[in-house]
Design a protein that fits this description.
Blueprint (H helix, E strand, L loop, with lengths): L4 E3 L9 E3 L23 H4 L5 H8 L4 E3 L2 H7 L7 E3 L1 H7 L4 E6 L10 H13 L4 E6 L3 H13 L2 E7 H6 L1 H9 L3 E5 L5 H9 L7 H14 L3 E3 L6 H6 L2 H12 L6 E5 L4 H15 L6 E7 L4 H4 L1 E6 L8 E6 L21 H8 L4 E5 L1 H15 L5 H20 L4 E6 L7 H8 L10 H9 L6
Parallel strand pairs: 5-15, 6-7, 6-9, 7-8, 10-11, 10-15, 11-14
Antiparallel strand pairs: 1-4, 2-3, 4-5, 12-13
Helix pairs in contact: 4-16, 5-6, 6-8, 9-10, 12-13, 16-17
The chain binds pyridoxal-5'-phosphate (PLP).
Length: about 450
């Protein structure tokens, strides 16, 4: 067999619908709660933040939701994305496993995020919204929304976690090239940001803080809505184009994954690849093992509690039931691997809680080592986040080698790392360390979880 094996679909194979896993849940999901009353939130409570069509997607229990043709037309720029067989990696590992990866780095922003950024911009534009406010951690989401704003004629305002803002100036330049504004968070533009800076002028920021700032901007102004790049049901659903395509591509390969692996920050790229396969299993189809990989430094699935918590630090967002480290949790500052959110998508959390998904955690240096090994074999240097998925897949492939079993392993290579050379440089020069988060701080953040009856 050739070393370059790639499964390509036709443009007509871009999925016509998004897949909503809630339709296949055995147990109903726990409803989001209003931050003030702690009563279940209705669609009206979310209306200041999101356009109605996205709110209806958020609460829908329909299995399929149609992708508008105008949007599929934009997806055509890079979708369907390729599925590769990682033959050279298999040889390098000397494993009997068959390793496949779905490559989302072919999108214009270099990650899976445009799948939802474009959808969110599309529905906001349709309902007459002029401006979107959002947060970004490593900068991938801000870049994707900036691009979507340029495509659909929306202003975009991005609050970027300060530590990344300082470490990744090219990200700001990227966003600004597409006409977006990018501010370091915490900022003095919002009451929430000012309050944090008053307590801690040297705050390096967190996703929870940046979310508070973006939400505050959206609530303040009638022409502005909020966009979130992960966590929410509708965001995960938009990413299911990935797994639906992968199902067809695995058919082309005349194979089916025994194991599907994805990295988890807020859960969206993981859900994108895993939920369409998991849905088949939930409906009585083929069995598949699903593995989520998170950073040992920000371990919501493996060390957090499954409980109601706020999505942000200033406690403005609705409470959702999820695996959380507490909304006050801030991962160690030298953590370069992304995936820094304190919580996890409620849908992914429920699937972990019910035992359908096996959560694992790895340290950042071993993930970078896996990413470099992958890059040498396959020629693509993964995003630091994606290195977690690579590490998870390699670990499964090495288990196959030990057991002398050939399994099919599919993982989501959710983005390339071409913007992340500073992190690779730190890794190569030995500056990345595996400092653990502070146990005491985690205990405090968990003790401060809201008390919900
Ligand atoms: C944002 C991002 C992630 C983390 O977000 P999820 O919602 O967990 O997917 C992972 N990988 C890449 C490349 C990203 O840009």
């Amino acid at each position: 067999m050739s070393n370059q094996v790639k499964y390509l679909l036709d443009e007509n194979d871009i999925p016509k619908d998004w897949y909503n896993i809630m339709a296949d849940f055995k147990n109903p999901p726990s409803p989001p709660l209003h931050p003030g009353t702690l009563q279940p939130c209705g669609p009206d409570d979310l209306a200041p933040l999101f356009p109605m069509e996205l709110i209806m997607q958020e609460v829908s229990t329909e299995r399929y939701i149609e992708i508008p043709n105008a949007l599929r037309d934009v997806y055509r720029q890079w979708r369907p994305s390729p599925l590769h067989r990682a033959r050279r990696l298999e040889q390098a590992l000397d494993t009997p496993a068959r390793i496949y990866y779905k490559y989302e780095g072919v999108s214009p922003a270099g990650s899976h995020k445009p799948n939802t950024a474009l959808a969110q911009a599309f529905f906001n534009k349709k309902e007459g919204v002029a401006r979107l406010a959002t947060e970004t951690g490593a900068g991938q989401w801000g870049s994707s929304l900036a691009l979507a704003g340029a495509f659909f004629g929306l202003e975009v305002e991005v609050f970027m976690v300060k530590i990344s803002f300082d470490q990744k100036p090219y990200r700001k330049a990227f966003m600004e090239s597409f006409g977006a504004k990018c501010y370091a968070s915490p900022s003095t533009l919002t009451e929430g940001g000012k309050a944090i800076l008053k307590d801690n002028p040297d705050s390096t920021g967190s996703l929870g803080i940046a979310i508070s700032e973006a939400v505050e901007r959206a609530v303040q102004r009638d022409d502005t809505k909020y966009a979130l790049g992960s966590v929410l049901n509708h965001v995960l659903m938009h990413q299911t184009v990935i797994g639906q395509e992968a199902i067809k591509q695995m058919e082309m390969a005349d194979d089916y994954p025994d194991i599907v692996v994805g990295c988890t920050g807020g859960g969206s790229n993981f859900a994108g690849i895993a939920f369409p396969f998991l849905g088949e299993k939930l409906r009585g189809g083929r069995d598949v093992e699903i593995v989520a990989v998170e950073p040992a430094n920000c371990p919501s699935l493996t060390k957090g509690q499954y409980a109601y918590d706020f999505g942000d630090t200033v406690k403005m967002t609705p409470l959702v039931k999820m695996h959380t480290l507490g909304s006050g949790f801030v991962p160690p500052a030298n953590h370069a691997g992304g995936l820094r959110y304190h919580g996890m998508s409620p849908l992914v959390s429920q699937m972990v809680h019910e035992g359908y998904v096996r959560p694992t955690a790895w340290h950042q240096t071993e993930c970078f080592a896996a990413g470099v090994a992958f890059g040498k074999a396959e020629g693509i240097l993964p995003a630091p986040e994606a290195n977690h998925a690579v590490k998870g897949a390699i670990d499964e492939a090495l288990k196959c080698k030990r057991d002398g079993r050939s399994k099919a392993i599919l993982f989501n290579l959710c983005g390339h790392g071409n913007f992340d050379m500073a992190a690779y440089q730190s890794y190569a020069s030995g500056q990345l360390t595996d400092d653990d988060y502070n146990d005491q701080e985690l205990a405090m953040a968990l003790a401060a979880l809201p008390k919900v009856a």
